[in-house]
DNA sequence: GCCACTTCAGTTGTGCACAACTCAATCGCG
DNA sequence: CGCGATTGAGTTGTGCACAACTGAAGTGGC
């Protein structure tokens, strides 16, 4: 790749990635708004549903977000009665997160979202796989390079 | 695609897209920070450099951003002395944007960023093309569907 | 046991994204 | 021409992302 003129593509990729991410969020917004959720809250809940009970630290590792972002987000989810937060007893630095019954019940109400999204995007399984592969590569490169 | 179980892939895609977009921003951040720019400001400047002189409306159309986002961003670029803003004379609703000499000079200082990004990502031309195609599809689907 | 070091969650401040809104300028129909 | 509808930029308020920081809790070397 070095030595090749990629200026045109880079321009498109860096912008298109940004735009596609926002477009995806817009696709979800109406459905999530009906449940009183934002897109990042939905992503956090998916991890919480999957894991059942985890620390803020582990949620941050899964979502690649720090406590500066998660603390206020989790405070809002707790305020909505969707999750439970409680200090660890053995290690009082950690905070354990778990869904409340109301929070757990919400999982059923978003159960069809993945399918509806897949239909809306209208990509083949191969395209999904390709996309996933490429996005993972970008995240891997960012983690490795740390800067350009 | 309808009727296929895509739950697993969707989960990954919706999160991976979000994470990859943030990772890309992180890759650029150190280089842009040295110039006093944020990533959205950089994207806006690319359009401004390319077009030379355009209205806030046209910049918003190019970036898919509304005046609510652009007005404060452009105010900061103007305050840094990188762009010029002036009301149109024939139509006083419009505001024309153009780079100042300092703003135009900045283009040379980011000239190698695309190449450095391409090297860091280490994708082939085919992969870049694939990625661009898939991201465009997502944006297109979002524009068409408007909701899922 | 003591103390420097690290870890974890939370806070503060800045900037972006977006909805909802304001307000002036312009347009277009009758 | 007159006036309602539309357009363009800006403002306000909410939430997310992230850097930089705080402070309490735990850890390890001595």
Overview of this protein structure:
Chains A, B: It is found in: Cytoplasm. Two copies of one chain form a homodimer. Helices cover 68% and strands 8% of the residues of chain A. With 148 residues, chain A is mainly α. Chain A folds into two domains: 18-108, Winged helix-like DNA-binding domain superfamily/Winged helix DNA-binding domain (Arc Repressor Mutant, subunit A, Orthogonal Bundle); 112-148. In chain A, strand 2 (83-87) and strand 3 form a beta hairpin. Chain A is globular and about 55 Å long. The model of chain A has no long low-confidence stretch (mean pLDDT 91). The interface between A and B is large, with 66 and 66 residues. Chain A binds a DNA duplex (30 and 30 nucleotides) through residues 22, 25-26, 29, 38-41, 55-57, 65-73, 75-76, 87, 91-95.
Radius of gyration of chain A: 18 Å
Biggest sheet details of chain A: 3 strands, antiparallel
CATH architecture of the largest domain in chain A: Orthogonal Bundle
Helical proportion of chain A, percent range:
55-70%
Most extensive interface: pair and counts? A-B, 66 and 66 residues
Tell me the strand order in the biggest sheet of chain A. 1-3-2
What is the strand tally of chain A? 3
Quaternary structure state of the chains depicted: homodimer
Per the CATH scheme, the topology name of the largest domain in chain A is Arc Repressor Mutant, subunit A
Helix-and-strand structural type of chain A = mainly alpha
Determine the CATH superfamily of the largest domain in chain A.
Answer: Winged helix-like DNA-binding domain superfamily/Winged helix DNA-binding domain
Poorly predicted sequence stretches spanning 5 or more consecutive residues of chain A? none
Mean pLDDT of chain A: 91
Number of helices of chain A: 7
Shape of chain A: globular
InterPro entries (chains A, B): HTH_MarR-typ (IPR000835), MarR/SlyA-like (IPR039422), WH-like_DNA-bd_sf (IPR036388), WH_DNA-bd_sf (IPR036390)
Subcellular location (chains A, B): Cytoplasm
GO cellular component, one term (chains A, B): cytoplasm
Domain HTH marR-type (chains A, B): 10-140
């Amino acid at each position: 790749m070095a030595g090749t003129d990629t200026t045109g593509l880079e321009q498109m990729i860096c912008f298109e990635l940004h735009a596609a991410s926002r477009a995806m969020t817009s696709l979800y917004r109406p459905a999530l708004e009906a449940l009183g959720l934002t897109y990042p809250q939905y992503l956090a809940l998916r991890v919480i549903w999957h894991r059942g009970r985890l620390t803020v630290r582990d949620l941050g590792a899964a979502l690649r977000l720090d406590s500066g972002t998660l603390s206020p987000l989790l405070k809002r989810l707790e305020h909505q009665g969707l999750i439970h937060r409680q200090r660890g007893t053995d290690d009082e630095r950690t905070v354990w997160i778990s869904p409340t019954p109301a929070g757990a019940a919400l999982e059923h109400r978003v159960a069809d979202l993945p399918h509806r999204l897949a239909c809306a995007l209208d990509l083949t399984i191969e395209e999904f796989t390709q996309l996933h592969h490429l996005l993972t590569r970008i995240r891997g490169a960012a983690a490795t390079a740390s800067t350009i």
